[in-house]
Amino acid sequence: MSRFAALRRIPATWLVIAGICSVQLGAALGKGLFGVTSPDVIVWLRLATSATLLLLIARPGLSRRTGRDWLLVLAFGACLGTMNWAIYQSFARIPLGLAVTIEFLGPLGVALIGSRRLRDVIWVVLAATGVVLLGFGPVRLDPIGVGYAALAGACWAGYILLGARLGRGWSGLSGLTVASAFAALGMTVLVTVRGELTELQLWVVGIGIAIGILSSVIPYSLEITALRTMPPKVFGILMSLEPAAAAVFALALLGEVLGVIEWVAIACVVAASIGATRFSGRSKSI
């Protein structure tokens, strides 16, 4: 773990915030390339980059694995790949900040699963209010884009629930590495069948690799280091800032201006996520 020694000197809170910024910077850069290549190609480059680097770092052992182990890692990889594919399809149709806000309902739902506290109804109502408000803002939402964001959120929820089991059955980064390889393989088949790689330019590949590093490798390294000293509940609260961070980066890099109603909607979902994490007794692993 010596590679993380320098990061341990940085306060854990700033590591998580830096990870959030890295993810949303990568997303904004990816959307900025949609004029020269497809969302599918960006997702393929992102997943291929992260899978390759994880394979080089983790070098997972595949022997002595049961059929249940392989089924679990395949399901996890399917959630990972579909989540990335769906959210980039959503980015192509609706503003980035709003797509991430809708997607975030997935982990919020996980935080509230099984809750029987009356207080948690507040967070459900608050999140629902945010979603309803999105339909009344000045930005016209493509229903297909909303549907893709919702699909990404459902896959994010599956990613969290399966990830907890994966961590018990696969040591270290091995499960994540194998799942990432499966997800990348699935996207490779998709873009190849569609012939989307025939006119891919080298500079786009370079930016795509950077997106993979920004969106997967850097944030995972920062977050896993932060979690060594930070309580999971505090981590979950900080991760609730994702939708707001997405909107800020989209505004700064893509010029995606949101109205007051959209910002209020984002604030409702962020507040619901913070409340669910802080008070419901459950913490998200995002």
How does this model look, in words?
InterPro entries: Diverse_Substrate_Transporter, EamA_dom, EmrE-like. The chain has 286 residues and is mostly helical. The chain has one domain (2-279). It has twelve helices and no strands. The longest helix is centred in the middle third of the chain and has 27 residues, at 143-169. The relative contact order is 0.23.
Summarize the structure.
With 286 residues, the chain is mostly helical. It has helices spanning 12-32, 39-58, 67-91, 96-103, 105-112, 119-134, 143-169, 174-193, 202-226, 232-239, 242-254, 260-279.
Globally, the shape reads globular
User: Number of DSSP strands?
Assistant: 0
Provide the helix percentage.
Answer: over 70%
Give the structural class. mainly alpha
Sheet with the most strands?
A: none
Radius of gyration: 18 Å
Low-confidence stretches: 281-286
**β content, as a range?**
under 5%
Q: pLDDT average, as an integer? A: 86
Task: Tally the helices.
Answer: 12
Taken in chain order, the helices and strands follow as: HHHHHHHHHHHH
Question: How many structural units, i.e. domains?
Answer: 1
Distance between the termini: 22 Å
Topology, please?
Layout (H helix, E strand, L loop, with lengths): L11 H21 L6 H20 L8 H25 L4 H8 L1 H8 L6 H16 L8 H27 L4 H20 L8 H25 L5 H8 L2 H13 L5 H20 L7
Helix pairs in contact: 1-9, 1-11, 2-3, 2-8, 2-9, 3-7, 3-8, 4-7, 4-11, 5-7, 5-12, 6-12, 10-12
Family: Belongs to the EamA transporter family.
Keywords: Cell membrane, Membrane, Transmembrane, Transmembrane helix
Protein name: Inner membrane transporter RhtA
